[in-house]
């Protein structure tokens, strides 16, 4: 964002274990550089679905 100097996009975060991801999602709020983050979990897809969608 040109006005604030902060990014206005999204990012992917890969956790070491599924339990680590669940721990983060159970917390009330997350703040990064003064901005509240909206966390969403990507639906788990099978490998066969990944190949089909990337082609």
Describe the secondary-structure layout.
Layout: H1 18-26, E1 30-32, E2 35-37, H2 47-54
Antiparallel strand pairs: 1-2
Question: How would you sum up this structure, described in words?
Answer:
This is SLIRP protein. InterPro entries: Nucleotide-bd_a/b_plait_sf, RBD_domain_sf. It comes from Pterocles gutturalis (yellow-throated sandgrouse). The chain has a two-stranded antiparallel ribbon. The mean pLDDT is 78. It has one domain. Helix content is 31%, strand content 11%. The longest helix is centred in the middle third of the chain and has 9 residues, at 18-26. The protein starts with 17 loop residues before the first helix and ends with a helix. It has 2 helices and 2 strands, in the order H-E-E-H. With 55 residues, the protein is an alpha+beta fold.
Tell me the number of structural domains.
1
Gross morphology = extended
Q: Given the structure, what is the number of helices? A: 2
Rg on CA atoms, Å: 15 Å
Share in helix: 25-40%
> How would you characterize the largest beta sheet?
2 strands, antiparallel
- Straight-line distance between termini: 32 Å
Classification by helices and strands: alpha+beta
Count of strand segments? 2
Instruction: Encode the helix/strand succession as letters.
Output: HEEH
Strand content: 5-15%
Low-confidence stretches: none
Strand order of the largest sheet: 1-2
Mean pLDDT: 78
Describe this protein with a few key phrases.
two-stranded antiparallel ribbon, 31% helix, 2 strands, SLIRP protein, 55 residues, alpha+beta, extended
């Amino acid at each position: 964002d040109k006005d604030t100097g902060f990014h206005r996009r999204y990012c992917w975060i890969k956790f070491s274990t599924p339990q680590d991801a669940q721990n983060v999602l159970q917390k009330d709020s997350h703040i990064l550089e003064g901005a509240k983050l909206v966390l969403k979990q990507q639906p788990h897809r099978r490998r066969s679905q990944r190949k089909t969608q990337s082609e």
